[in-house]
Amino acid sequence: MIKKMTEILSKSKVVLEESGYIPGSIFPEDKDIREALAQTVENTAFFGDILLKLPDITHSILKKEKAWSLLMKWSLGWSNSTGIYDKKTTELMNLVAQEFNLTEKDPNFVNPYKKEIEKITAKEIKTKSPEKKVKKKTTKGPRLSGSRHTEL
After folding, report:
1. Comparing C-alpha atoms, which of 114, 73, 118 is closest to residue 96?
2. Average pLDDT over residues 69-82
3. What is d(CA 138, CA 150) in angstroms, rounded to the nearest whole number?
4. Dihedral-angle region of residue 101 (phi above 0 means left; psi in -120 to 50 means alpha; beta otherwise)
5. What b-and-e string marks burial along 72-91, b requiring 16 or more CB atoms within 10 Å of the CB?
6. Fewer CB within 10 Å of terminal CB in the chain, N or C?
7. How confident is the model over 92-115, as pLDDT tens digits?
8. How far apart are CA 88 and CA 78, in angstroms?
9. Quick one: pLDDT at residue 74?
């Protein structure tokens, strides 16, 4: 999926750079430039969602493919500078930039989908577990029945 996104973003990047379109300026009239702009913005937001939901897998893929990582960083910066995103998506892109280490991380930033976080939380839970209850041992073997059979 990331491979296909990078192919689309590469083609869109070429079109946008050749056209001389400046992000955040007047919306382009040319159909090809508009399509490249839309594909860049959409795929960047989609990539951001994937990065936040599957951070470990995405980071491992991008470590192997440095060119893809550079392209994604370019598209993130370029798309943010267009001003097209609504408030919710802009917040999402801010979180993506923090996850991608492009901006300084907020002290409260925690990606709950990271496995490292799960390991830390599991360790904290084990160390903070309440004391175990002691179970009473019952003796096995024959027992006398209750007082219900006392009348003879």
Report:
1. 73
2. 92
3. 25
4. left
5. beebbebbbebebbeeebee
6. C
7. 999 999 998 888 888 888 888 887
8. 18
9. 93
What is the pTM for the complete model shown?
Answer: 0.69
Other Cβ atoms closer than 10 A to 18: 11
With tokens 């897998």, the residue in question is: 57
Residue showing tokens 């360790």 = 123
* Average pLDDT for 53-62: 90
Q: Which residue has the tokens 């073997």?
A: 141
Give the relative orientation of helices 2-19 and 55-64 as an angle to the nearest 10 degrees: 60
Three-state SS for the chain is CHHHHHHHHHHHHHHHHHHCCCCCCCCCCCHHHHHHHHHHHHHHHHHHHHHHHCHHHHHHHHHHCHHHHHHHHHHHHHHHHHCCCCHHHHHHHHHHHHHCCCCCCCCCCCCCCCHHHHHHHHHHHHHCCCCCCCCCCCCCCCCCCCHHHCCC
